[in-house]
Every structure is written in structure tokens, then in C-alpha cells.
Amino acid sequence: METRSITTEVPMAPRMPQNPAELIPELAELSAALFKVTGNGSVPRSTISLVHLRAGQIVGSTYLTVLHTGFLRKAGESEERITSVASWQDSPYFTGAERAALALVEAVLQPSADGERVSNELYAQAAEHYEPKALATLMVAIGQVNFFTPVALIARPVPGRSFTDPWQ
Predict the structure, then answer these.
(1) Which residues contact 55 (CB under 8 A, 6 or more apart)?
(2) Does the chain have fewer CB atoms within 10 Å around its N or its C terminus?
(3) pTM for the whole thing?
(4) In this predicted model, what pLDDT tens digit does every residue of 69-88 receive, in sequence order?
């Protein structure tokens, strides 16, 4: 396993030189289908982006964190909301529904000392804020970002470059 000094700069080049979508063209269709599902209108796009940003932070992906921060900025979200996603539990900037969504993504992505990641209590809290279709959409949104996490961590596209071409 490669160890790097904390003072060593990270190169601004992707680890994998070729875009995985070029190697596997079906990936674009899958990505479009997931985006269509999460954009079905049952959950606000801003909530989906907040969930994706929190997931990027949890898994330690600069690419996903920068990408979803950019999406939130373009959507007109305030800097206070964007920057406090990492500490949402004590931030005054989120609604109850957004808090439930952020709690779900954390529960799914972080191990639990109790064994069960999504407790019945957490599910009930989320269900208070989301109708069944919206709750299913949130599940897909968490799965969507988790699907692309290996691409972000293994291929390591360049953060901050165009979403459509981070391999250039």
C-alpha cells in the first residue's frame, strides 16, 4: 500500500487516464437513468445534492465534494448551507426533511456500533417527512452516489473540472 506524506501535493491529473464511460459506453445510459429517477420531482433537487455532497464528504472524495458543492452553488444555495453540510446536526440552515435525508445517508455510509445502520426510529423519522415515492427516490439517490463512489476513488477524476469531462 502506498503511503504519502501529508505535505506531498496531489497531482492534478486523473489516476485513470481514460474516462470509464469511454471504456464502458453503457455507463452513460445508466447515469442518465439514475439522474432521471432522482429528478422525478418527489424530492427537491437541492435535497438530492445535499445528500450527494454529504456522501462525498463521508467517503473522502474531493472530486464528489467539489462536484456537488458546485451543483449547489449553481442552484443558488447559500454558502452557509453548503459549508455546514458536514456539521448539519447542529446547523440552523436545514429543514426537518433535509435533516432526515442527511441522517439517512450518514446511516447508510457509516458503520453502526449497534449493527443496524438504519434503525426503525430513523426510518420512521424519514417517513414522517417523505411520502413512499420520495423515500424510494432518496434510497436511489444514496445508491446513485454510492454507485459512482468507486469511480471517484479508484479512477480519481480531477476535481473542479467540467462534470462532463474531468479526464482532460
Answers:
(1) 64, 105, 109, 142, 145, 146, 149
(2) N
(3) 0.88
(4) 999 999 999 999 999 999 99
